[in-house]
Structures are given as C-alpha cells and as structure tokens.
Structure prediction request, 648 residues.
Amino acid sequence: MAFKIIVCAKQVPDTNVIKINPKTGTLIRDGVPSILNHDDANALEEALRIKDKYEDVTITVVSMGPPQASDLLFECIAKGADEGILVSDRAVGGSDTQATSNVLVAAIKRWEKDNGPADLIFAGRQAIDGDTAQVGPQVAEKLDLPQVTYVEEFELAENMKDITVKRQMEDGYELIGLQTPCMLTTIKELNEPRYMNIAGIYGAKDIKVWNAKDIEVDLTTVGLEASPTNVYRSFTPAPKAPGHKVAGDTANEQAKNLLVELKGKHII
Amino acid sequence: MNFQLTKEQEFVRKMVREFAVNEVEPLAAEIDAEHRFPVETVEKMAKYGLLGVPFPTEYGGAGGDHISYAITVEELSRVCASTGVICSAHTSLCCWPIFAWGNEEQKAKYLPDLLAGKKLGAFGLTEPGAGTDASGQQTKAELVDGKWILNGSKVFITNGGYADVFVCMAMTDKSKGNHGISAFIVEKGDKGFSIGKTEDKLGICASSTTELIFENCEIPEDRLLGQVGQGFKVAMSTLDGGRIGIASQALGIAQGAFDVTVEYMQARKQFGKKLSQMQALQFGMADLKTKIEASRLLIYKAADMKDKHMAYGEAAAMAKLFAAETAMEVTTKCVQYHGGYGYTKDYPVERMMRDAKITEIYEGTSEVQRMVIAANTFKK
Prediction:
C-alpha cells in the first residue's frame, strides 16, 4: 500500500515586494506576485525526497485560498507532487488560524475517506504573511496526531514507520524519535527546495477544487465569524536607530566603558 | 489571434527565471572572464528538463512547445548568453534534426539521452571556405565496405569541445552541388574524429567554439541522417529552427541589459537628479523597450508557426534579423547610459554588448536573413 503524504501549503504575497499603506494599515496587494510560502516549499521538498528515495509514495498538497491559489498547486505538481486539493469558498474567507485549521482538518478527513489515512503530514512552520506558526500545530491537535515543529533534519527509516527528527530550538536542538502517522512542521534549514521541472509543467495536473459543502465542514466553525482572533492593526515598524559597539580590548575594559556610558546617561 | 501565453508557458518563464537568477547569473561574469564552459550548469539544466523542452515525452522530451523553448533560451540569455547558446545549439541544431530527419532506430538510440541532457549535442556545417555559401562543402564522405569514411574539417562549432553527438554535413557527390551533400551523426570517440582548435572570441566566451577534424573518420552505414543527397535540406531546415533559438538569445541579452540599466538609472544621480528623471534618457529607454517587445512578438510568432507546422522560414529570419540588431543597439545604448561604469567589468552590460554581436553573425548573418526574406518576397 502506498505511503501517503499530505503537504499543507499556502499561497502568500511575496513579502520582498509587499508594502503597507501607512494611512489605512492594510497590505498593498496590487502588482505583488503570489508565491508558494517559503517554509511550505521546504515541506514539499522533504516529501519529494521521500518519494525520490522510496517506491510507492504519493504526495497530496492541500491548500485553502481564493480560486487563483490553484496556481500554487500547479507549481507543486510541476515539482513532483501527485495531486492538489484547493478548498475555496466565500464561507471560509477571513478565517483566522483556528478557523483555517478547521477547514484544513475537514479537507484532510474528506480526502482520507477516499484514500485511507495519511501516513505523514508536512506543513511549513509559518506563513510569511501571518507569521503565526499556529495552523500546523492546530491541524495536528485536531487530527489527534503526534507532532514536532521546527524540523531542521528528517529521516524516515526503511520500515516506513520510524522517524528521527532534529527540532530547532532557540539555544540548541532536540533529537526526537516518533512514528507514523504524525505531523511535522518544517523550517528552511531542512533542505533546499527544487525548481519546477519543464516536463512537470507540461504534465497532467490533478487539481481538485472543493467548497465548504464538499469537505462537510461545520459552517459555524469556519470563516470570519468563527474566528476568535482579528487583526487589530498592521503597521511597518519604525526602523531602529543603529546601535554602537562599546570600545575596549578586554572584557573588563568593555564592561567599564559600558558602565561609564550608562552612568553618563543617568540610566544607572 | 491570441497574445496571451498559456499557463504552461507562463510557468516555464517563472521556472527558468528562478533557475537563471539563482544558478546561472552568479557564474556569468566568472565564466566569461575565465572562458570556462559551465559543465555544472549543463548538469543542472539537464536535471530540470531544459535540454529537451520542445520534444514529445515519448522520446524523453519535456513535452513543451517552441514558444516555451524560446522563453527558456530568452530567460537563460537574460543573465548569461553563453549558457543560452549551449541550450539553443543542443536543442535546435542537434536534437531537432535527429527528431525531424532520423529514422525510428536513430531517434530511439539518440534522443532519450540527448533530451535528458545525459549527452550534449552540436552541429557541423560551416567550414573554413564554406560559411554563408554552405554549398561549398569540402568535407567528403564515401561509402566503403558498408562504412562511411569522412575526411575534412568544420569550424566555429558551438558546444564542440563538450558535445557527445554531432550532426555533420559532408559531400557525398560533388557533381550534384547542394544535392550532393548528406547529413551524418558522428559521435565523440568515433575513429578518426577529433576536436581541433578552440576559438578565442570577442563574446560568449564561456561557450565552447571549436574545430572538428575528420581524418579517415569511420562511422557505421546507419549513421546517415535522412537520405543520401538530403544534407542541404537537413541543414537549411535545421537552421530555420535554430534562428528562433538565436533570436531568443538576442532577445534575452537585450532584455537583460535593459533591466540592469533601468535599475542603474534609478540609482545614479547627476546634476542633482536621477538619470531616470532625464527625459532624453527616458525617451531612449522607451525606444529600446519598444524594439525589445517587437522582437519578442516576431519570435513568438515564428515559434507558434513552427508548432503549427506552417512554413516559418521567413518569419524566423525576420525574428532573428530584428532581434539580433535590436540586441546590438540595446546593449550599445545601455553601456552608454551607464557611462564610464558601463565600460568596466564591474557592470554586466559590457559583457552583454560583446555577447550581442554574435547574434548578428551565427546561424546565418543578418545579410543571410535579408537574403531569405528577399527571396520569399520576389520568388513569385
């Protein structure tokens, strides 16, 4: 039986290009290209590496977004994924992370109805537009799956069951062993995502677009109304003044100079 | 009439742009300075299907079309014209004649490896005494005891030093003129076949341009491509398609020079304002942009006609003529707009200007393109 991987991916505005309207506090989306979220590209790449290495592996990419987000699924399939599912419906628009994970969980469950349970679910750590890092963990909780976030190294044993991951921490890392089925969120240190392949671009595309009814989701749990969090304000942070280095050849000297400066400014 | 690219063509542009910016551009100045053929880039192009774009998947191609092929060469050449011509010569001048003129055995033997980029292709027509007048071929081929024996030499062969498969023309019956030329598939390592001098060139310095030498070169009888006496037809039909590739290379060079100049003009200040705020220069750039876009439309039209199996020879000649002359004009002006900095190797426009010149020369000079267009005009 095939080893089934689901990758959760999001289409996001390219933040290298995006600006915030200082008056309204909203994102200026005009002319900003949409891209596959960076961490999600790492999630897909790890799934593709499993598919490169082992026989009989399938990759399904699941996304939620407006109809044009199907371009993201086109890109994922052109890189080597087998199919893409886009949940697109006005009823799910405006969802925060809580409501979004409800939608994704419903879509995954709907998919599993036809295909059997997924062995492994990957998601990027966080999206570059919202930066919450909440959706992946919420999906894992709601599917009752063990999860590891911030995965920077991944290894799947030949028994297709045992997984070892290295989890990035602020001050080091954790080595964690777990078993499928499980959910992992990935960071950019994990791998270098591949490009699309020309043959993949021209190959057949299995992209399904599902609405809220298709995924049999409880409509009271999705969309703007069902979102407990709201964006209060968006703003471009004022640039910080440049810092300066405290002079001194030795640690002692530097500490002394620092004290002198702090006292001079009446801070201490 | 539809001027929109298909979704696939759009994605080819997105993919090749990303590939070119990340993998090709960082090497461009270095391989130009060192005159180094970028073997590592060729391997990467192979991996992503860039060496078999417009061929069907049954032979291992990517299943794309000639517009997506033109986009591929354009986007590679936008950052590195040497890399662009490696792809173009391989695809148009070696893979295509084998695909179009080869029998099933030849296609099955050569195309999968060529289209997957496991082998690189080249094309040998030009000789020291037979350039524009290709009919003056001195290289001879004789059938002796079931083997072809080739004697002679070819010059200015793109990819020469790194290719594995060569489509070469040779005289099989001098008395018949053009109808006495035949086409052959020669492999690296064939007995009596060797690579001669490597040319030191003005531009496209990272592409390998060499001599091919045949000294009693012995190849099996089944290496004949097409029929005996069809070589001139094989060569001319191949060059018609090659012109789409070179026109795309010229387009890419022009677009690349234009893009870096737009950036430069928005940063460079003189007389208290940016160059981009000076109307004389603005108008100059507007003219260049218009010509670049006109080149693009001529090229895509020729490529579309090729995909639709229409007679596209004249369209390809017009595309190459216009795109090549545009590339020369655009790069020359872009160096000018960069001022002294443009003349230095700290900026890429001087390389682009040197690279542009070849597009007016190889795979038919601009004079040849005018001959083709004139012949089509007055043949009735």
The first strand of chain B starts at residue 121 and ends at 124. Residues 266 and 273 of chain B are 10 Å apart (CA to CA). The mean pLDDT of chain B is 97.
